[in-house]
Design brief:
Order of helices and strands: HEEEHEEE
CATH architecture of the largest domain: Beta Barrel
CATH topology of the largest domain: OB fold (Dihydrolipoamide Acetyltransferase, E2P)
Largest sheet: 5 strands, mixed, barrel
Structural class: alpha+beta
Radius of gyration: 20 Å
Oligomer: single chain
Distance between the termini: 50 Å
CATH superfamily of the largest domain: Nucleic acid-binding proteins
Helix content: 10-25%
Low-confidence stretches: 20-28
Number of strands: 6
Length: about 130
């Protein structure tokens, strides 16, 4: 075996490994589970606000058309991205009234990707960046 082949094989092996390793990361951040062509407006009460990375999450209780309470899970951007859009760890508290505009899950479950939030005092907070 030619001695020059071994470094090239190592390089190509490392390249293939790096590509394979990056596939799940790309899939995680693709947002494919949300419908980018639709928006839902949800008026509800905050049940949970978790302001941690990698994604901030919000759970709000919404009364549906049948009068039933449905918990909606909202996925937002990272804490850093939301802070740049005006969010703070104290922006939402349990029991706060809030209106969420989001891109709904494609499968119909009660979940969405945050587009914006309107607080009870009328303050509007953005989604945290153009790519989220």
């Amino acid at each position: 075996m030619n001695i020059d082949v071994i470094p090239r094989m190592r390089f190509h092996s490392a390249l293939v490994f790096a590509i394979l390793l990056s596939i799940p990361l790309h899939a995680h951040h693709s947002g494919v589970m949300f419908d980018p062509m639709k928006e839902v407006t949800l008026k509800g009460t905050v049940k949970e606000f978790v302001f941690v990375n990698p994604h901030v999450s919000i759970v709000i209780a919404v009364i549906d058309d049948k009068g039933q309470v449905v918990d909606w899970s909202i996925e937002a951007a990272s804490t850093q991205a939301l802070v740049r859009s005006g969010w703070r760890k104290s922006s939402l508290k349990f029991g706060d009234a809030v209106t969420i505009v989001g891109r709904p899950l494609r499968d119909g479950r009660p979940g969405a990707q945050l587009v914006r939030a309107i607080l009870a005092d009328g303050t509007e907070l953005g989604r945290g960046g153009p790519n989220f």
